[in-house]
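User: Last request for today: this protein with flavin-adenine dinucleotide, please.
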Amino acid sequence: MLSGVGPASHLSALGIHVVADLPGVGSNLKDHVVVDIGYMDKTKQSLSFLRPTSFTHSLQLIKALWQYKLTGKGPLTTNLAEAVAFIRTDDPDIFPPSEFPPETAVEDTTTGKAAPDIELFVTPVAYNEHGAGTPLGKGQYTFMLHTVLLRPNASGTIRLQSKNPADSPLIDPQYLSDQNDVKNLIRGVRLLDRVAHTNPLKDIIDPAGDNHPKLHQNLSKTSDKDLENLVRERVQTLYHPTSTARMAPLEDGGVVDPFLRVHGIPNLRIADASIFPSIVSGHTTAPVIAIGEKAADLIKNAVGGQARR
Ligand SMILES: Cc1cc2nc3c(=O)[nH]c(=O)nc-3n(C[C@H](O)[C@H](O)[C@H](O)COP(=O)(O)OP(=O)(O)OC[C@H]3O[C@@H](n4cnc5c(N)ncnc54)[C@H](O)[C@@H]3O)c2cc1C
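Assistant: Here's the final one, the structure of the complex with flavin-adenine dinucleotide:
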């Protein structure tokens, strides 16, 4: 947009010379959001010591650091999200109609009957505000379960606040502006609660965490309304923003064609997460790499004279 490619009215209002009027630039912002539910671990096997809040934690961390340095093994080999599940909100085995009445049903936003709309994952440590917040308890051991909204209906925007490139853009993700997205996350949280209260996790939850304001160890009796409040309070980005220069025809708000070329600007291609027509139902790095590989092939073909487009 700073270079004059974007919605003409927005660019003109900021005094930017319009090179190409492409209304889709900066629109259709999609992202995966996540809701985290924390638990206290009575086995003290969790990795809360990675951010030490007690002398014992510090000793464990030093031991883990040495173990990793000397053997390449131990707790520091974790990728944190150690187990994942991809599921559907309309799976009757997981959400039986007897417990989930029709008014709680989630609209099908998936790409097909075998595609998921919820991801669950577990981390062997609970964290707060993306890990930047205060640890959840001094010397405590915690873990977390997480539910991810994979197919959001809501979409947001990116706009400029001025033509000065040093000014931050205005990012309005519109998270949870669509009630279907909220319903999806409520089902996800209910499932997390059920997983947590099924062994082996059930036996390791420490009742000492029952009344901790940032842990939510028992949600089975919580109403949907209260779960909605919890979802809205705890929702965070999973850092997967996409689709602000989506691949689609110009009349559908598209910015690039199927060959990654920006509509109306010869020889300018985009190869990153912004060209996703919509967000994928999984994490974004692998598809971005695939786009990069494809872009290299397209450009090689184009400059090589074969299949010049
Ligand atoms: C904290 C975090 C954790 C994540 N974890 C995962 C994960 O576990 N798995 C997964 O699949 N995905 C994960 N993602 C998402 C994934 O990293 C992104 O979807 C992916 O990197 C997007 O690729 P991209 O090429 O679109 O953008 P980027 O990777 O952001 O690349 C953009 C590049 O453009 C450069 N750049 C910006 N402005 C300019 C400019 N004016 N001139 C020149 N260069 C410029 C930047 O320096 C950067 O190198 C995570 C993201 C974050 C932030």
